[in-house]
Amino acid sequence: MGVWALVAEPAGLLPAREQMALSLGWHIILAAFGVAFPAMIFVVHRHGIRGDETALRLAKRWSKVAAVLFAIGAVSGTVLSFEMGLLWPGLMGGFGDVLGLPFAFEGLSFFTEAIFLGIYLYGWDRLPPRWHLAALVPMMAAGVFGTYCVIAVNTWMNMPTGFTLTGDGEVTDVQPWHVLFNSRALLQFAHMWLGAYMLVGFVVAAVYATGILRGRRDDLHRIGLMVPFGFASVAAILQPIVGHVLGMALGTIQPAKLAAFELDVTTENPAPLHIGGILVDGEPRWYLSIPRWGSFIARGSFHKPVRGLESFPADELPPVNTTHLAFQGMIGIGTALALAVVVYWFARWRGRDLLAHRWALCGMVLAGPLAVLALECGWVATEVGRQPWTVYGILRTVDAAGDNPGLWWVFSGVAVVYLGMTIGAVVVIRSMTRRWRAGEEDLPSPYGPAPEEVAR
Amino acid sequence: MTLEIAVAAALFVGVMAYALFGGADFGSGFFDLTAGGPESGAEMRSLVDHSIGPVWEANHVWLIFCLVTWWTGFPTTFAAVTTTLFVPLVLALAGIVLRGAAFAFRKYAPSVGQARLYGATFAGSSLITPFFLGTVAGGIASGRVPADGYGDRWSSWLNPTSIFGGCIAVGTCAFLAGVFLCADAERTGHPGLVHSLRVRTLSIGILTGLLVFVALVPLQNDAPTLADGLKHRAAPLIVVSGLAGLATLALLWLHRFGIARVAALLAVATVIAGWGVGQYPWLLVDEVKIDDAGGAHATLVGLLVAVGCAAVLVLPPLVGLYWFTQTEKAPAHDARAGG
Q1: What is the separation, in whole angstroms, between the first and last Cα of chain A?
Q2: Can you give the pLDDT at residue A254?
Q3: Which residue has the higher pLDDT, A442 or B324?
Q4: Which of A100, A195, A372, A416 has the highest CB neighbour count under 10 A?
Q5: Alpha carbons A45 and A55: distance in angstroms, whole number
Q6: Which sequence ranges are marked TM in the entry (chain B) (predicted)?
Q7: How do residues A422-449 score in pLDDT, each as one tens digit?
Q8: Tens-digit pLDDT profile for residues B246-273
Q9: CA–CA separation, A154 and A75 (whole Å)
Q10: What percent of chain A has pLDDT over 70?
Q11: Which residues in B208-316 belong to E strands, given as ranges?
């Protein structure tokens, strides 16, 4: 495959892949905040206007953090819109009118989100409390609908539908609504939606768990931990079920991806489950094998075969090790998080609060980065696992890429800008929390004159 | 009217809305940049922050609307433009990212030093983006984007029409921003700012107006199709634009800032409409006509449905947001540092 790839690759392919991976992998974290954070702010804010001053203070703080995160989420999302054309002209030129309609509806929800974010941030002390709180509702709805639309396009890339390809490669009989409402989109959406709640819930909970570990055991930290942890718990318990149902049809839809996920070299019936392991010179090594369970997990039956990698032409296989490790990383972390929250709530039901223990708090801190890692692994698994196709079975990634020789420069620039944005966001948000701890609440901007002058 | 024309019209409405409202946000970067040192510029920067803070993200979505409508409605021309005008699009994108991120960071920056760094990034990139988007428009309007894409990566935007387009874009953005900031400054009680903003906006207005009419000369040779359209079909729009521009200047002179906003919007909207009408019926001038560029019919119908949904679901809250932020009086603004 190496030789074949060297001959056929246009100049834009590898840097385009790297850049897409970086910008999508970066944006997806912010996108998750856009989807899930408003609901958590809503719960805390609602608690606040019912009389809990601490909760109200927390909601105000979260809305300021959201202002920063949503701003960089908006611009990094714009990057992706540009990149669709700049990096993948072959995809957009050929299939723009097939896959575009869900994006148009996603644009609607982005509009809604941006407008109500403006109203919500600007509305503190300017709108009646109930109306102000209500501004979060359209944001939550837009998060659901927007996620669905974007995922509908990704689902379409995995399982193309809504058009006919003639013998000479012409796209005809386009039915864009079939793309928007394709049968698998709802499941794949549910998977991402729960993933977003897991990521944001565990990350925010981790922030407050850190605070408690450092001795800040007050009401604010308790609410800041429990609300996001509650959301994350529900999502973490549902996620393995949704993921499993989603994965069951993979054997018929994208069998090569499934073979790479499961590290199945030869077709076996029933197939064992391989845990861990990598492919060295075409042979799987260092794995743990559990008989029959590969068939059950992939096909929902102990008696169905799973197609092995050997049964596909070499130029139709994804990079197996990346796909396999990313997939199992996601599954492993997801399972661990689900078990951990079950243990926590079981203990709590039995009257024991594990938050009194340092090890439980350390676990909560760890869950934040793990949830991020799981989400990233999931995207790596599904995107790399679809290779060498951009549109499965229809358009190869080689043909989707452009032929622009300057892309490595662009990629380097993008990497620098994203690094700068990451540092900026971390520095600013940390400085906000530092000032909050010091007793400042409103954080005036330091435009020039001494802060006390501006603040009077 | 064909389906293609209807979708192109919707796309062009998006371009106008982005140029007017997004443009005013970008233009405020000019006043932020030229506000002076940390001490003397603080009042102006606070005003800029206060004016565009709640609306810039919503205004920014018009750009997403344009991109999505374009690639869905006219996919091959979208790919032709992205492969040809790759460089200015990347640079405009860099400006968009730096502007948005730096603006958000500055608001919560912990120190004057950091605020200055973010502020300079925000203000500088606010000028970069309109300039390069203007060169993109110039490249399309002067017929430099081939139908199959991959046109010359440099001369497609380094040419008289593009450079004039870029400069006019920066000028109109700053002009719009100046008029809006004048009105904001007066409404929220900053007489000192009103004075300096008014003088600067008047000069920018005169310069930009001159630039628009001077640009018509090189366009004769560099973009003959567009120039022909401007002289005939779009001539009334150019006349209206000139008159509205003069009216804006007069209203600024007379301190009638509220109504000057309307005149300024009209002046800029007619310039942009002039470009659109001037290059009609071409989508990529001299290469692809709108009627020949459309994607699948079912998709075009779907797009119009989406546009209809937008008109019903998005426009009312958007108008509400503008009303909410543009009618605020002085007391709440003075509480800015506290609220």
Answers
A1: 69
A2: 94
A3: B324
A4: A100
A5: 6
A6: 6-31, 85-105, 117-143, 163-185, 197-217, 237-255, 262-280, 300-324
A7: 999 999 999 999 999 988 888 877 775 5
A8: 999 999 999 999 999 999 999 999 999 9
A9: 21
A10: 96
A11: 282-284, 288-289
What is the pLDDT confidence band of residue B329, given thresholds at 50, 70 and 90?
low
Half-sphere exposure of A201 (CA within 13 A, CB side): 23
Cβ separation of B60 and A114 shorter than 8 Å? yes
CA-based nearest residue in chain A for residue B69: A104
Shortest Cα–Cα distance, B247 to chain A (Å): 31
As beta bridge partners, residue A164 has A172
Pick among B57, B128, B318, B333 to test the A interface (most A CBs inside 10 A): B57
- Hey, of B11, B63, B74, B86, which one would you mutate to test binding to chain A, going by the most A CBs within 10 A of its CB? B86
DSSP string, B158-169: SSHHHHHHHHHH
As a whole number of angstroms, the distance between CA A112 and CA B316 comes to: 10
CB spacing of B110 vs A431 below 8 angstroms: yes
C-alpha distance from B74 to closest chain A C-alpha (Å): 7
With the CA atoms of A432, A438, A443 and A444 taken in that order, what torsion angle do they form, in degrees rounded to the nearest 10? -130
Question: Are the CB atoms for B161 and B230 separated by under 8 Å?
Answer: no
B97/A76 Cβ within 8 A: yes
CA distances in angstroms from A37 to A34, A72, B74, listed in the order given: 6, 15, 35
DSSP E strands, A308-351: none
- Does residue A452 have a pLDDT over 70? no
User: Helix count (H) and strand count (E) of chain B?
Assistant: 16, 2
One-letter amino acid for residue A110 of the chain: F
DSSP A311: G
**Mean per-residue pLDDT, A333-356:** 95
Q: What percent of chain B has pLDDT over 90?
A: 86
pLDDT tens figures, A149-199:
999 999 999 999 999 998 888 898 899 999 999 989 999 999 999 999 999
CA distance A398 to A14: 9
| A270: preceding bond cis by omega (within 30 degrees) | yes
- Chain B partners of A449 at a C-beta cutoff of 8 Å? 38-39, 42
Q: Is A286 left (phi over 0), alpha (psi -120 to 50) or beta?
A: left
- Residue A324: which region, alpha, beta or left (left: phi > 0; alpha: psi -120 to 50)? alpha
**Domains (range + CATH), chain B:** 3-337 (1.20.1630.10)
pLDDT tens digits, B95-104: 999 999 999 9
Q: What pLDDT score does A10 carry?
A: 76
Q: Which residues lie below 8 Å from residue B316, measured CB to CB, with a gap of 6+?
A: none
Cα torsion B314, A86, B24, B69 to 10°: value is -30
Q: Which of B41, B54, B107 sits opposite A118 (nearest CB)?
A: B54
The residue among B71, B85, B184 with the most chain A CBs within 10 A of its CB, best to mutate, is: B71
Query: What is the distance between the alpha carbons of residues A322 and B201, in angstroms, rounded to a whole number?
Result: 57
d(CA B115, CA B102): 9
In the block, residue with structure tokens 């490595």:
A408
Domain ranges of chain A: 11-184+406-449, 196-248+255-385
* ipTM score above 0.95: no
Q: Each residue of B173-226: pLDDT tens digit? A: 999 999 999 999 999 889 889 999 999 999 999 999 999 889 989 999 999 999
